[in-house]
Amino acid sequence: MTGPLTFLFAVAGGLAVGNLYWAQPLLAVIAADFGVSEDAAGVVVTVTQIGYTLGILFLVPLGDVLDRKRLAPTVLAASALTLVAVPLAPNFGVLLVALGLLGFVTVTAQILIPLAGDLADPQRRGAIVGAVTSGMLIGILASRTVSGVVAGLLGWQAIYVIAAVATAVMALLLARAVPQLPPRPRVSYPRLITSVFTAVAQHRAARWTLALGMLNFAVFSLIWTALTLLLTAAPFHYSVTQIGLVGLAGLVGSLAARRAGVLHDRGHSSMATGAALLLSLVAIGMAWTTSTSIVGIAIALVVLDIAVQTVSVLNQTRLFALAPDARSRLTTASVTVNFIAGAIGSAAASLLWHAGGWDAVSAGAAGATALGLVVWTLGRTTLHVPAAAPQTTDLEGTTQS
Q: Taking the mean position of all CA atoms in its chain, how far away is CA 293?
């Protein structure tokens, strides 16, 4: 993994995952264009997320058995074709089908991150994985803002056309840049999918890591979902564009956390995870006590994102060190449980907001983070995984030296 290849992976991953979020700030415009209610337009996000979940479950494990030099560009090219179908949809039903398919093939980032782990030197794996993961996270945070700006200037369809062109170009670049890798053992598809569960079952550290990841993403989703409710209410009364600009504070946190994987490389993965959880708790307290100050909230968001992304990068790097031959399958397990936790966090945001406003949201986030600290305390010894663990997991789920 050279510097330019790491950068290419980060950009490709960020662009790919951004395709999931273009529609989120455009729901009102899409509803008006297709003559449906805004509540009905909200199904756009749900359908895309369902497609993404299915893609994670059924496409990403293929990275452990297929040639990634072909797999990653092929999936990215499929994303480009599906992006073109979105603005061409003649009615709302076809739009939903196109977005569901887009979600299904928007998994290139989750193919590239394990590939980066395979290509990286063991002593630098954390740094490489951290850089690529940060690219993906930046894509998530930036996509909403970019989509709103482009839609305001050129119409909502334009962002999908631009994204399709950029994605096609990236597919060509990856096809040329990804090195040829040794062939993987052939295995039946059903056996491959079931081995996702056996890979997790064979590693105790993986189960602790997944538990921490779920709580981490639940807090992240809870705060960022409730942030919209906070900023649209008094005393702010912000517009969608203003809220999007506030969201850019998360980019600072993601950039600051991109080197978190180095802590794993230096043998500090477990202790750094605990420190990041404590920092997350501090950030939530800052957001709680400065809820009427946009400066205070922005600072709290930066600190929170540093903490959350640090935990995320360390979790991903730890999983890669556990089972080199099962990195794609462990990625599938990790992303799936994180996605479920994120959905729970988003749902909890609305409930807590209506129950007690920002105070209730902050208390809920603090409680989930405190539970994460309890989990870390109980499993901190298990979470200490060397940068180059001497074990692999074969497709039967058997741990090998």
A: 28
